[in-house]
């Protein structure tokens, strides 16, 4: 077996050895349990390619219809900008039809999808993105954020609120072709709001549940944040948050925290936004609450799981410091 890595290759070489020793083809067929026709094919393969002709290798299969370079040159730019093909968006079915019609290529649907996967593309729901952004302000804020994070005496916190509903919107899930997967809902307005602040440098997280988002609720949260994370002499604590009206009330007591407000329409620069997305995907996908208490208990369990895993918070909430 040392002469070939497979059992099939060993049997072929063994048959050749018996022929070399003078056994007849019929005897070799009986000993190796190969048909006589197969023994003749082994002899032909050996005469054409030597021993390499007897060692089985992987079949090359059918040739690619479109080389990878051609896919990258002709198809990938269209995916990035559908307007180049006079389209507003692509589905796999629409792209498959366009390729067959305009490239005159008989490419199967599954092959089209496989080619997209080879180019590291997959089907994703686009994230809504505001158009009226001041890129100069956003870039200037990123510069300040990098400076704060590089300062060893500065703790940078990211603060925000998020609403969690008892009937979360359905998300994509695996379903057998031809079947319809149902997502039940009650139709009742069950909702809780969560105030949260995370420090990605060490994974600290402070959260509180409220029914409403207003200045009074936010002050209660600031009280809890200051109590759980008291001031440390010689250290600076910065809280990054958006421009919600209750964040800018003059009577708020910020304790030892220094508020820094994000540029308008820049939720992507607030690292805690990714925590809300992670919670909703992991804990509220395919789950419904029959009453307010169930939703509150589920939220508490989800938040405790995050508080107990600071390493996940450090990874999930890394600040975005470049556009």
Automatic annotation (TrEMBL):
It holds the Pfam family HTH_28. Signal peptide: none annotated. InterPro entries: Homeodomain-like_sf, InsJ-like_HTH, RNaseH_sf, Tc1-like_DDE_dom, Transpos_IS630-like, Winged_HTH_dom. Residues 155-295 form the Tc1-like transposase DDE domain. Gene3D superfamilies: Ribonuclease H-like superfamily/Ribonuclease H. Residues 89-141 form the Winged helix-turn helix domain. SUPFAM superfamilies: Homeodomain-like (SSF46689). This is Transposase. GO terms for molecular function: nucleic acid binding. It comes from the Bacteria. Residues 11-63 form the Insertion element IS150 protein InsJ-like helix-turn-helix domain.
